[in-house]
TrEMBL record:
Record keywords, A-Z: ATP-binding, Cell membrane, Membrane, Metal-binding, Nucleotide-binding, Plasmid, Translocase, Transmembrane, Transmembrane helix
Domain HMA: 2-68
Compartment annotation: Cell membrane
Protein name as it appears in the record: Copper-translocating P-type ATPase
Length: 788
């Protein structure tokens, strides 16, 4: 199965997406299509053997929408097939670079792909609102219903009715045209949406007034229709501004990428658009530059700030052979690197893709809201017709009164608020998560994360750093820690063994003596001549074989081993000079993360291949009560199933390939961002900062988002339950005019949109408190190492 996100221009109404989804899912080979008006795109899962991206694009076009193809945001788009021709190394190449720069500047001005269409729609709706208001004011002044003062005579000796007709036509036809187009498009696709109700209300009032002007004597609704449309347009303008603001997270991510890159072509430095960089090209980076694409350093060293992508606050030292990430910032030296991933394959592009897919997915509540919205439109039409029949034919009310109530029902029942309730919250929630290094891959995971009963952490690489560190040094009497470390590091110099690397890392810049005659002692350690004297480095077995007495350090060695440490013995000239304890160090926020989860009522379990005794000691240090020990890699998914069989909803946190089955089996899988691609592909949530505390942040974010969904759905449903009887005149003499109904309808939609945007503030505060909880006081408690 393939997956593509297509740009859909002109998703005007919140329920427009239903028509696109319906037509796409009717295509052979399409298993799922999810459109999102807020992002102006549709994500499609399809079988490449049965259909194609181009055929799907034509299907979108046949629905009445614009579609230029797959969404490829600027700087992250697929590169062209050919670089600038090598034969034109001089002025033409410079011209090509300038052209690319100009094109990118234009793209920046226009926005980002589908997002540009939403911004254009916001401006268009604003313009239509001002046109409608401009002509509505004189309509109100000249209308008999305005009546506050005697209006001037109409110009050109026109009759009042004819003059109002011209004004109303100007106030209605152009400003309301998108609603008529959207209504026709919806009906053609077999969908009932808000545009249908707007057309029924505005169209009924306008056509009735035109008829009474030219065909038959009767009342006119020019003023009511114009005022009604002004409020509808105002509400839609504000709503669209909110929808455009909800996609701010993706735009912020895209702005991380630099528009231009300096590459070496034919031995010359050439500035080209980032989107034109080819795999294998050499790129030049100077201090302060942003790195355009992913690659590997081939010359030079530098400090790289990767915080915008990984969340690591400290710059990272990079040298020849190290990988660099596109959109990170070069802080110090100059270097050259070879591009290894460009276009849609870069880390930034993959993050953007994850966020887009999450925002285009639907929470279970949204599926119900979509169906309810369509039924609501049908019910509104039936109630509107029943209202007219009841008041005009049964109760004998005046025609003006009956038509007014009918129009009011059509207007007030518009289901935009119900359609916006969930996707707006999902857009803001997933976007905010992305800016904080928490990537939800779908809206379902956002909802499921609120229901978790237990979080299972894989120990190595998740709760721990996944690599050994020196955690303790015990020196013999008369020796210092530095003496022990210098001798051990001298023997291990040049070794790639994980324990050797841990010792060398701890030794840092210590001056080391020359080493000769290095010999590896299989299964025991190593020996060498350091400064002309024999040094033994290894386990107790090596000491016993070489008759090195442990003396006073024997008890310390037993204690360290009992605590799960790997103990390295260091002997010099036949005497034991010290012990080096090595263990897998915990992540700084592991203890705080466990405590925060338990505080929120979530059980925490640790899954490890360690024996039960060691595992329990580790769990006790971290504050974890449930231990799943002696678990083979292939048994991890089975352990998750066992917890689920107890009726628990399980979240699994892992980083390795062998965690993938368990991540898939869990109700919600969390992948540590520093882990493998397989783990991240299998997970529902990716934690870019590799921080276990972000599991807490993800749950806090999910609960806040779900709370906004429920608030919005409650308001949308309550609004319609109250509004229908009032609009239909059930509470007569308490009635409302179409204009007031338009204010209420627009206000409900705007309220839902603004309430979702408030999630930004609420969520940020929540994450801020969470991070604060993992401050120095908490982190100091994680100093105890974890057995390797």
């Amino acid at each position: 199965m393939a997956n593509v996100t297509l740009e859909v221009g002109g998703l005007f109404e919140e329920l427009d997406h239903l028509g696109v989804e319906k037509q796409l899912e009717a295509e052979d080979g399409v298993s799922r299509a999810v459109a999102n008006p807020a992002s102006g795109s549709v994500t499609i899962d399809f079988d490449e053997g049965l259909t194609s991206e181009e055929k799907l694009r034509r299907t979108v076009l046949s629905c009445g929408f614009r579609c230029r193809g797959a969404v490829h945001p600027r700087h992250v788009c697929k590169p062209g097939p050919d670089p600038v021709p090598s034969a034109h190394a001089g002025h033409e190449r410079v011209a090509a670079a300038r052209k690319a720069h100009a094109q990118d500047a234009m793209a920046h001005e226009m926005g980002h792909g589908a997002g540009a269409d939403m911004q254009a729609m916001v401006r268009d709706m604003r313009n239509r609102f001002w046109v409608a208001l401009l002509f509505t004011i004189p309509i109100f002044v000249y209308s008999p219903m305005g009546g506050m003062f005697t209006p001037p005579a109409p110009p050109f000796e026109l009759g009042l009715d004819l003059w109002l007709f011209f004004l109303a036509s100007a106030a209605v036809i152009y400003p309301s045209w998108p609603f008529f187009v959207a209504a026709w498009r919806a009906l053609r696709n077999g969908i009932l949406n808000m545009a249908v109700l707007v057309v029924l209300s505005v169209g009924t009032g306008y056509l009735f007034s035109v008829g009474s002007t030219f065909l038959f004597p009767g009342v006119q609704f020019y003023e009511a229709v114009a005022v009604l449309l002004v409020f509808i347009l105002l509400g839609h303008w504000l709503e669209m501004r909110a929808r455009a603001g909800a996609s701010q997270a993706i735009r912020a991510l895209l702005d991380l990428a630099p528009p231009m890159a300096t590459v070496i072509r034919d031995g010359r430095e050439v500035e080209i658009a980032t989107s034109e960089v080819q795999v294998g090209e050499t790129i030049i980076i100077k201090p302060g530059n942003k790195i355009p694409v992913d690659g590997e350093i081939v010359e030079g060293t530098s400090l790289i700030d990767e915080s915008m992508l990984t969340g690591e606050s400290m710059p990272v030292n990079k040298a020849v052979g190290d990988e660099v990430i596109g959109a990170s910032i070069n802080k110090s030296g100059s270097f050259r690197y070879k591009a290894t991933k460009v276009g849609a394959d870069t880390a930034l592009a993959q993050i953007v893709k994850l966020v887009q897919e999450a925002q285009n997915s639907k929470a279970p509540a949204q599926l119900l809201a979509d169906r309810a919205s369509q039924w609501l439109v049908l019910i509104a039409i039936l109630i509107g017709l029943a209202t007219f029949a009841t008041w005009f034919w049964w109760l004998g009310a005046p025609l003006l009164f009956a038509v007014t109530l009918t129009i009011t029902v059509f207007v007030i029942a518009c289901p935009d608020a119900l359609g916006l309730a969930t996707p707006m919250a999902v857009m803001v929630g997933t976007g905010l998560g992305a800016t904080n290094g928490i990537l939800f891959k779908n809206a379902g995971a956002l909802e499921e994360a609120t229901k978790l009963d237990v979080i299972v952490f894989d120990k190595t690489g998740t709760l721990t750093m996944g690599q050994p560190h020196v955690v303790d040094i015990v020196a013999a009497e008369g020796r210092s820690d530095e003496d022990v470390l210098r001798l051990a590091a001298a023997v291990e110099r040049g070794s790639e063994h994980p324990l050797a690397l841990a010792i060398l890392d701890r030794a840092g810049d210590l001056a080391l003596d020359d080493v000769r005659d290095f010999h590896n002692r299989e299964g025991m350690g190593a020996e060498a001549l350091v400064g002309g004297s024999t040094v033994l480095l290894g386990n107790r077995r090596l000491m016993d074989e070489e008759n090195v007495p442990l003396g006073a350090l024997s008890e310390a060695a037993d204690e360290l081993k009992g605590a799960g440490r790997t103990v390295v013995h260091v002997a010099h000239k036949g005497d034991l000079v010290g012990l080096i304890a090595i263990a897998d160090a915990p992540r700084p926020t592991a203890v705080a993360a466990v405590a925060a989860l338990r505080k929120r009522g979530v059980e925490v379990a640790m899954l490890t291949g360690d024996n039960e005794g060691t595992a329990k000691r580790v769990a006790a240090q971290l504050g974890i009560g449930t231990v799943l020990a002696d678990v083979l890699p292939g048994q991890k998914a089975d352990k998750v199933k066992e917890l689920q069989a107890q009726g628990k909803r399980v979240g699994m946190v892992g980083d390795g390939i062998n965690d993938a089955p368990a991540l898939t089996q869990a109700d919600v899988g969390f992948a540590i961002g520093a882990g493998t691609d397989v783990a991240m592909e299998s997970a529902d949530v990716v934690l870019m900062r590799s921080d276990p505390y972000d599991v807490v942040g993800a749950i806090v974010l999910s609960k806040a988002t779900l709370r906004k969904m429920h608030q919005n759905l409650f308001w949308a449903v309550a609004y319609n339950v109250i509004a229908f009887p009032v609009a239909a005149g059930v509470l007569y003499p308490l009635i409302i005019s179409p204009a007031v109904a338009a204010i209420a309808m627009s206000g409900s939609s705007a309220l839902v949109a603004v309430n979702a945007l408030l999630l930004k503030r609420t969520r940020m505060e929540g994450i801020g408190r969470s991070v604060a909880e993992s401050g120095e006081s908490d982190r100091s408690s994680t100093a105890s190492p974890i057995p390797a």
